[in-house]
Amino acid sequence: MTGATSPIRVLLADDHHLVRTGFRVILEIEDDIEVVGEAADGERAVAMARALRPDVVLMDVEMPGVDGLEATRRISTETDEPGGPAVLMLTTFDRDDYLFAALRVGASGFLLKNGTPEALVDAIRVVARGDGLLAPELTRRVIATFARPGGPAGTVGGPTPEEALRDLTPREREVLVLVAGGASNAEIATALHLGEATVKSHVSRVLAKLGLRDRVQAVVFAYEQGVVRPGG
């Protein structure tokens, strides 16, 4: 994503001008964040993401014309190489269908708009460095949903799940289980008696083999495929 001294370049996509202005005010007081553009609909967001190559797109779900979910799918499909923008989705709508749809189309994070400015800034930094993020209340909902019979099925992308899982080494499967449990690289390193650099390499290989963009999608994949179970 960004270099050690480069600011995180953010594109704002929301159909409400006042909302975009508020986000810009919050973000531009941060020394390590730069707002590089604004889009009022999904079509424009896709075009600006292509032209400006931001590090993070702050994407509203409901917008006129092309909505945030379709825009995220297009951005993820067109820029799925290293260095492509991460999409952080925000919404005022507390709905499970939006949450799971956002994860499946390639969003790296999902936050509700009733969060604090500090949470927004932290979320941008998290997804900019290549990690996935869910608000704590949304993480609990993901787990609760998978605990229900008839929860969401299918994968978030990539190869056939069975084939992908068979391609994981025993160590990589251990890492996937710990990632699905919410463990950080440091916590995984402690649990498996490895160096953090080694853990980072393992996580990268797991994501590559499963065809996933980030740790958020790895969590969803692990629960969907029964690699881990709520409370297990």
Automatic annotation (TrEMBL):
Residues 161-226 form the HTH luxR-type domain. PROSITE patterns: HTH_LUXR_1, HTH_LUXR_2, RESPONSE_REGULATORY. Keywords: DNA-binding, Phosphoprotein, Transcription, Transcription regulation. It holds the Pfam family GerE. One of its GO terms (molecular function) is DNA binding. The keyword Nucleotide-binding does not apply. One of its GO terms (biological process) is phosphorelay signal transduction system. InterPro entries: CheY-like_superfamily (IPR011006), NreC/VraR/RcsB-like_REC (IPR058245), Sig_transdc_resp-reg_C-effctor (IPR016032), Sig_transdc_resp-reg_receiver (IPR001789), Tscrpt_reg_LuxR_C (IPR000792), WalR-like (IPR039420). The modification 4-aspartylphosphate is found at D60. Residues 9-128 form the Response regulatory domain. PANTHER family: TRANSCRIPTIONAL REGULATORY PROTEIN NARL-RELATED, TWO-COMPONENT RESPONSE REGULATOR. This is DNA-binding response regulator.
